[in-house]
Every structure is written in C-alpha cells, then in structure tokens.
Amino acid sequence: MRVTMIGGGYVGLVSGACFAQFGMEVAVVEVDERKLSALQQGKIPIFEPGLDTLVAENVAAGRLSFTGNMDEALVGAEVVFIAVGTPTRRGDGHADLTYVYQAVEQVARKLTGYAVIVTKSTVPVGTGRKVAEIMRAARPDLDFDVASNPEFLREGSAIGDFMRPDRVVIGVESERAEAVLRTLYRPLFLIETPIVVTAIETAELIKYAANSFLAMKVTFINEVADLCERVGADVHDVARGMGLDGRIGRKFLHAGPGFGGSCFPKDTLAMARIGQDAGAPQRLVETVVQVNDARKSTMAKRVTTACGGSVRGKKIAVWGLTFKPETDDMRDAPSIPVVSRLVEEGADIHAFDPEGMEAAKPHLPGAVVYETDAIAAVTGADVLVVLTEWNVFRAVSPARLKAVMKGRVIVDLRNIFDPTAMRADGFKYSSIGRAVPDRA
Ligand code: UDX
C-alpha cells in the first residue's frame, strides 16, 4: 500500500517510519528545506529513542523516502496522512489550521485516483468535514474519503506507543475508508489491539478528551501534593493508594512542577475554546489550564524560599531543562518560567540537560551557563534544583553531591531522591508533596 505522509515533524516522522516498518511504501513530504535535506542525509532532526535506526532500516529497504515534491509523493497514493503542525493561534487559543488547509488544497489539486485523506494532526472537531468540503470544491470529479486517525504518541517512547498502542481510533464515513485503514494497521490487529471505529467528529474529540483527561489527572495530583505538604502526608503513597483502584489507574499520578510539552498545554487550551464556542463550556479543563499555568510560574518561589528568601548571588545548579526526560523538546517546559525568574532575581544559573541544551538556549536568558555534565553543573553550587527526571540524575548519590556542592540546599521538583536519605546526609531537601516527618 502506498502512503503519503505530509509533514516530517514529530508525528509524521514516527508514524511514517512505523508504517514503513509494517511493510507499506511511505513517502514523507517535508517543505522545510533544511529539515528535508537533513532527513535525506539520514539525519533525524529530533531526539527520539530508536527513531534513527528505524528510519535508516526502512530507507535502506526502499520502503521509506523523503521528498519536497508533493506531486511526486501523491502518485498512486492510497492513503494521505496530514501530519502538519497545528500550533496555538496567537490571541485566541484556538488551534491554527493554516498548514492543514494548505496541505489539503495541494492534495486536492494533485491526487490522481481514489485515496483516503486522513488527519493525524490534532485538529478541532469539525475539521474532517471541512477537509472534505475543500476537497469536494476543488475536485468534484474525484473519488475520495476523509478520515480522522488521532495519534497518542508520547515523546521519548513514541515508537513503542505506535507499535503497541492501547487502541487505534479511526473516524470514518464509509466502509471503504474503514477497510483501507484496517489494512494499514493490520499488524496491530494481529496482536489484538482494540480498534474504535466511529464518526469523524467523535474521533477528533477522543483525542482532546484523552489528553485533557490525562492533563487533569496530573493537575489533580499536583494540587493533592500541595495539600500533602500542608497536612504532613506523602503524595507518592496517596497516588499509589488511589491508583491501585482499577477505576482510577496508577499512571499519570506523578506530582511535579506542572505539565508541559507539545500536546497537553495546546490541547487543553483548544478543548476549552471548542467547548466555549459550542456552548458547552468545559469548566474542568478550563480550570486545569489556569491551575497548571499558575503552578509553573510559582515553582521558582520554592527555590527562593528554600534559600531563605533570596537567590541573589547564589550559584544554582539546574538539572534538566526539557519538559520531560528522553526528549530534547523545550515546548512549554516548566524550566522556562523557573529559570527565567531565578535569573531575574539575581541567581547565577549553571544548567545541564542530557539532550535539550541547544533547544533550551532560545527559551532561556542569555546569562545561563550550560555545563557539560551533571557533576560539572553542581560543582561549587549553593543550591541544586531538579527540573527534569533524567535517569543520569537519579544515579548520583547524596555522598557525591555532598563532595562537590558548596551549599546543602536541594529543591527536587520531580521527586527523584529519597527525602530521608537526603536529610540523613545533611541536606536541606525539599520536594513535591512529601513534607512527612522522617520516621524514627
Ligand atoms: C502526551 C500524551 O501522553 C500523548 O498520548 C499525546 O498524544 C501527546 O501528548 P507527551 O507530551 O509526549 O505525550 O508527554 P507525557 O508523557 O504524556 O507527559 C506530558 C506532561 O505531563 C509532561 O510535562 C510530564 O512531565 C507531565 N506528567 C506526566 C506529570 O507531571 N506527571 C505524570 O504523572 C505524567
């Protein structure tokens, strides 16, 4: 089966490479010339574990190719995925669909035979129908179907998420389109992956509802963590005790500095807007957006408080800058407001992130010093702030920290260390939601 993937960004690249691995012939169309030439030279512009080898293998097998020429890529295409960016539109919080519609117009002009046009980008409810209208207006003669097939890929484990998903969601209007998409995902049905076949609008909404619910779960536990600190409870045990209830589930109950990344902030905001426009306000989601924004901007205060009221002139080591580990993505990372605030207040920041330092530079104040490794960052520091839970940080022992740090203050916004051990080693250690007194 011939697949055209429009967009060689995160979603397009991972999905394209995975479909090629399923045995499909995939042409990825990328308009950004720098990105395209990197891809054509075998360089992957994003950090995603396993993606480079998967791409290389499938390119070598002749199943995966990259092109800037949409016309060429559309020849004989049976499925056309639209996987272009849908950033938040400035001013109103809606998803910006400019790139989606541009792609559709080009597809409409160039398609040569029946194809299913599938939106993979996260798009507001109703976009699938609009795509069909654009297609029909441009090519009344053409036989086509429109479908929605949202992705649920987490950065850092995207390939595993694609290959072993909890479910595949497809929104379709015809049996023919359903059959095409079932064929495409056949290897997943062989491992008994559940499939939800539904209307296009429903599929579009599933994506927003799923991401907003997960964002709400994280926000819920973050507020519970604040309460734990006030009442002397341990948020880890609360999360475990709650999460073992099968109706709740254990995942996404890890308290931290607030969610970031390319999806949750954008999707919660968009869902709130969709609800307002439709006259069905999503008040919980609206609150999640507000609570999370407020949380990220108050995290710096925890550092100031731990330092006794001022960070001026203090050397602060920052471990981790990306919005989560195993990615180089800085979009909406909590490190941005935290580090910016600390610099404003006169701190001397020495940061280290295993993958995200280049991506971080445009987002952070120029005064930040980037170090070559975790130990270099923390050497001579008065304070250590943990902002992303990379495994390399967990591996550093309290004894090692004690040997290289000047001060004894640690603000662990990801709860990677054991409070009892840290305190036993003489650290003034603060974390999220674990203000429990040490056991005697
Ligand atoms: C998310 C969704 O999980 C994925 O299905 C979707 O399609 C894209 O968006 P991603 O943004 O890569 O994936 O990261 P995810 O692992 O979901 O984390 C999102 C944010 O929530 C991160 O900032 C993370 O630090 C935070 N988080 C997550 C927590 O603070 N606690 C948790 O328990 C889980």
Walk me through what this model shows.
The protein contains 19 helices and 14 strands. It is an alpha/beta fold and 440 residues long. It has a domain of 197 residues: NAD(P)-binding Rossmann-like Domain (Rossmann fold, 3-Layer(aba) Sandwich), CATH 3.40.50.720. The strands form three sheets. Strands 3-2-1-4-5-6 form a six-stranded parallel β-sheet, sandwiched between helices. Helix 14 links the parallel strand 9 and strand 10. Helix 10 crosses helix 12 and helix 12 packs antiparallel against helix 13. The model has no long low-confidence stretch (mean pLDDT 95). It binds uridine-5'-diphosphate-xylopyranose. Uridine-5'-diphosphate-xylopyranose binds next to helix 10.
Tell me briefly what this model is:
By secondary structure, the protein is α/β, with parallel strands linked by helices. The chain has helices at residues 10-21, 33-40, 51-60, 70-74, 98-110, 127-138, 158-163, 175-184, 186-190, 200-231, 235-243, 264-278, 283-306, 335-344, 357-360, 374-378, 391-394, 398-404, 419-424, and strands spanning 2-6, 25-29, 64-67, 79-82, 115-119, 144-148, 168-171, 195-198, 315-319, 348-352, 369-370, 383-386, 409-412, 428-430. Uridine-5'-diphosphate-xylopyranose binds at residues 151-155, 211, 214, 218, 252-254, 256, 259-264, 323-324.
